[in-house]
Each structure stands twice: as structure tokens, then as C-alpha cells.
């Protein structure tokens, strides 16, 4: 067996040097160094691979030794005219090394400039995060296709030197201090950008990137604690993915997002009214999480090919879909304060062509807000089919929530995620079903369960895929915390 393994290793070692370098391209710096003991052919290959990853956290020496190692390595690449496609540097420094590290970076970037396609740079100050200035030489690297900078300050002085326009396809700014005009200059100088990630940047208040006609993926993350959310206006028809977290987005009236297949909005406070006039012919997935901008809006989504919709929030939005999809799913997660059941009925009606999963998440509930009497409600409003109904609540609220939910929907599955013991939930459900079976239920329960044909108790281990029926007595005797349980209901 060993001879066969050695033979296979010999065949790999006999591959051309450029192929061996390409193999090492996909390894970490640490693992690449380890290959030097495999054979003579591998001894020096790691020294010439086309990518360098220098991460202080994985370096055993002190910070000064780390910087010296980076300096020697890059100088060797330059002296030997070795090709370098990717350079990744990450270190946090104290005040005494801040100026030296920036000076070294100004020296290193030109050493990588011939042919480098990806730069990922992070020099974080231990005392004043975000205040180390990004050297202007970064903007003079014309071959660059992917730029990722973290924890730098990008000053207005950089504007005249920005010449990234020829090849840059991906821009990732993370924790960067950047003014609006600097950001605008970068984007206007780089019309070939296909992916843009703006993550937790300070001072940036406006993003206008409508000139990026090849932009496919846009990701923005702000902070819920920002005094003023960033205003985002972006609508190139080339867009395929939009993810915005804690930013205010403006959708142009009548915009045609012909290639967009995923739209994710989280914590957006601005009005989303203009969504109703936009077209989303390719949209497959749409999520609205904690979006206050939906509160006073009636939204109509023209998405003929939608496959999945998710909403999570503390109010019930008014949303309708125009779609030709025959198999699509909706996940609705309602939190404290959202229990306006007439509005929930309208929402379920608008989603009734989809497979609906409904979560009612209420730690504390005012029972006055819950319709526990029918009052002719059923006569005018037919309950809608729901695939699953999941309660996250105190057990004391559960009876009222269950009755209210059954006024408007007919779930196939009922689950309970406990603030209190699951055993009490099972007992409560079983009591209702047994009283119904014996004809001893109260008038309200009889009304709400009148079209129930069959009920069963199902369990599974957490790591199992399949649910199976189980006698309640057997479950109670053998109960373990690793068990998951639910009730399966069949309606007429």
C-alpha cells in the first residue's frame, strides 16, 4: 500500500512547476510551507507560489519580526521577478508601529503592482481603530481586480490618484472611514465593478452607484445604532443580488430589475412604496426583516417566478404578489405587538397560493387583543391552509393564541418552542383533542375544531430527518431533551 502511495506522490511531484504552484495557491500559507518536506521537487515551490497570505494571528513571532518577514518575502519576489496574483496582509499594531507599518505598505504595494489581481489589506490600530490612512499607492495598482480594505481611513487626498478603472471587478470596504465624495470617485472611476460590499463603514451617508452598469451583487451593512442611516440609490438592470442591512434604500419608480433573483432587506426604515411600480421578472427569493418602511405601505410585488418569501417583524404588513408560480413558500414570523388578526387574515389571503409557514413569537401578550370569540368571523372569512404553525410563547398565552390563530388558518402541523416545558404543551393539546373526541369540549373549541378530521402526535430525534407517529404514553415515559415533537392535523 505504501509503495502505491509513494508512486502516486512521485507522479504529482513530476508535474510542471507552474502546476505545483497552482496547487499551493489553494492552501494556507502555513500548509504551503509544510509541503517543503514532501520531496526535493516540493522543497522550494512554496517560496514561489502566486499568492501570499500574511496573517499576524497565525505567525509565531512578534509584530516586528512579522513585518520583517513580509518585507523580505516581497523583496525576494521582486528581485526574482516572481509572479504575484494575490496579497493578503492582516495585523493590528500599537502606536509605535503605526507609522512604520504604513511606510512599509507604501513600499510593498509597488513590489506587488506587476500583475497583482487581488489585494486584501488590514492594518488595525490598537488605540484608534479606523484612523490609519490607506496609502495612496493602493490606487495606482492598475492590474487590480479585487480590492478588500479593512479598518483604514480613505482621505480626500486620494481622489486625484484613483486610477482603478481598468480592471477592478470586486470592491469590499469593511470598517473603513470614507467620505461620500471619495466613495463616489472610486465607483465612478471603476465602471467594471461586478460585486460591491460595504460593511460597517463610517462617515458614508450616500451611495449612488447607478453608473455601474455591470454590477451584479450589492451588499451593504450598517448599524442599527447609527444616528443617520446611509441613503442608498442603486438600480442597474444588471443586478442579480441586493442585500441591505440597516440602510435606507430608494427604488426608482418603474425600475426594471430584470436580472434580480434575490432581494434581502433588514432594518430598512425608509418607505418602500415604489416597489409596487418595479418589475422583478427573475426574482426567486424575497425577504423583509424588521423593515419599518413597510408599516404604512400597501406593497404589490410583480414577481411572476417567486419561489420563496419571508417576513419577520412586529407588525403585519400589507403585501400582495402577482405571480405565476405554482409551488412557492412563505415564512411569516410575527413578534410582540403584531397580533392584529384581521390584518393577518388579509396577509394570509395574499399568500394563499404559496405553502405558508407561520411563527407567532410572543413572550407577553395582552389577551384583550386576541379574538377568542367567533362573533360571526367565520361566516365571512374562510380560514386559510397553513403548512406549519409554530408558537414561541409562554404557555399561559398559548390557549388564547391558538384560538385566535384557528379563527383564520388551518395548520397541518403545530409546534411549540418553549419558554416553559414542552410536556405541559403536549398535555394541553392532548386535553383539547381528547375532549373533542369525547364530545366534552366547550362551545368555542367545538367551533374552531369543527372541521378537524384527524390528529396525530409525531416525534423525532434532533438529528433525524423523518418524523414518525408515537403513542403519547410511550413518549412521556421515554422523553429526552433531544426529542422534537409536534401535532399533525388533517382537516376536512
Can you characterise this structure?
With 492 residues, this protein is α/β, with parallel strands linked by helices. Helices cover 26% and strands 29% of the residues. It contains twelve helices and 26 strands. The chain has helices spanning 2-13, 17-25, 29-34, 63-79, 95-112, 180-189, 341-350, 377-380, 398-408, 422-438, 443-448, 472-477; strands spanning 51-55, 86-93, 118-125, 132-133, 146-150, 152-154, 170-174, 177-178, 195-199, 206-208, 217-221, 231-233, 241-245, 248-250, 262-266, 285-289, 298-302, 308-313, 318-322, 329-334, 355-362, 384-393, 409-418, 452-461, 468-469, 483-491. The protein has an 18-stranded mixed β-sheet. It has a three-stranded parallel β-sheet with strand order 4-6-8. The N and C termini lie far apart (65 Å).
Can you count the beta strands?
26
Multimeric organization: single chain
- On the 0 to 100 scale, the average pLDDT is 81
- Rounded radius of gyration (Å): 30 Å
> Quick one: biggest sheet?
18 strands, mixed
Share in β-strands? 25-35%
Question: N- to C-terminal separation?
Answer: 65 Å
Q: Which outline best applies?
A: elongated
**Number of helical runs?**
12
Q: Structural class of the secondary structure composition? A: alpha/beta
How helix-rich are the residues, as a percent range? Answer: 25-40%
- Identify low-pLDDT runs: 1-9, 371-379
